[in-house]
Write a structure and sequence with these properties.
alpha+beta; Thiol Ester Dehydrase, Chain A; 5-stranded antiparallel beta sheet; 4 helices; 5 strands; 32% strand
């Protein structure tokens, strides 16, 4: 399905190309929607006592996106362990199959004090929700 993003003028640089810093924001939007599709929201995770801070971000820029381009950012689960999860992303211009950027984000499960936890031991139901995302 993917998350739709319209490149805003403020997101472009002097070359009229979407600035690289926006991709992290777009990945977050896609990740938030993807996790909802798995059956839970970020705020519900927090209510259950869990945080999911970002520990690494990768992005490969293949072709530029420009002002008013309509983009589709697809997030999917790349790897899940009881402590970490890695999501991968593909960015396409709407109506085109060609990928213009790819990326990955790594996250660690923590308690509300940001102490790493083993999600499988603490909340098997939530862990199963995340692992069902491994089927693509």
């Amino acid at each position: 399905m993917g998350t739709r993003i319209s490149v805003r003028y403020a997101e472009t640089d002097q070359m009229k190309i979407a600035h690289h810093s926006n991709y992290a924001i777009w990945y977050e939007a896609a990740r938030t929607e993807y996790i909802k599709e798995l059956g839970i929201t970020y705020s519900e995770c927090e209510k259950r006592g869990y945080m999911l801070p970002l520990i690494s971000l990768e992005c490969k820029y293949i072709k530029p996106a420009f002002y008013e381009d309509e983009l589709i950012i697809t997030a999917y689960m790349d790897k899940v362990t009881p402590v970490r999860m890695i999501l991968a992303y593909e960015v396409r211009k709407e109506g085109f199959d060609e990928i213009i950027a790819t990326g990955k984000t790594s996250h660690v499960w923590t308690d509300l004090n940001l102490k790493p936890i083993n999600l499988k031991k603490n909340d098997i139901e939530l862990y199963k929700m995340m692992t069902k995302g491994l089927v693509r």
